[in-house]
Amino acid sequence: MGLSMQQLQGGIDALSSIEPAFAAALVRVGYPQPRGREPGYETLLRTIVGQQVSVAAAASIWRKLEAAVGGEPVPAALLAASDEALRGAGLSRQKAGYARSLAEEVSSGRLDLANLPEDDEKAIAALSAVKGIGRWSAEIYLLFAEGRPDIWPAGDLAVQIELGPPARPARTPG
Predict the structure, then answer these.
(1) Fewer CB within 10 A of the terminal residue: the chain, N end or C end?
(2) pTM of the predicted model, to two decimals?
């Protein structure tokens, strides 16, 4: 579950040795604490629920979702819930569709979260085949839930802001 502090620091040290923006950020803010999540359906569903909302809003929606389905929103309970119940819990129509897609993929066995491919790109492709799970969500899941050390969410807005725009190649006269 997630990377250990030693793994996290080793990776950050390696990045800092080759990328000045990482080295500067490390001096400025220090090492982050490891963040791990339990691998499995609930973590992916929480990722969908939390897309483009604050942490507080996601927690509120999760509590309402549990109330709407009568407990943990396991795949069978989520699939049995009405659209109105899911919308009443705070899921947009689109997110309710994504949640149902994940529940269907897991309950049918098409997505076996306990046996994702070892190859990172193949695992990302398997996760991204679920409606509502894009590359960023797949990378975040593999990093925080499976502790895969070679995953980097390059599309993460906070990472892009911190690192700044990519350097442009020098123009040659001509």
Answers:
(1) C
(2) 0.77
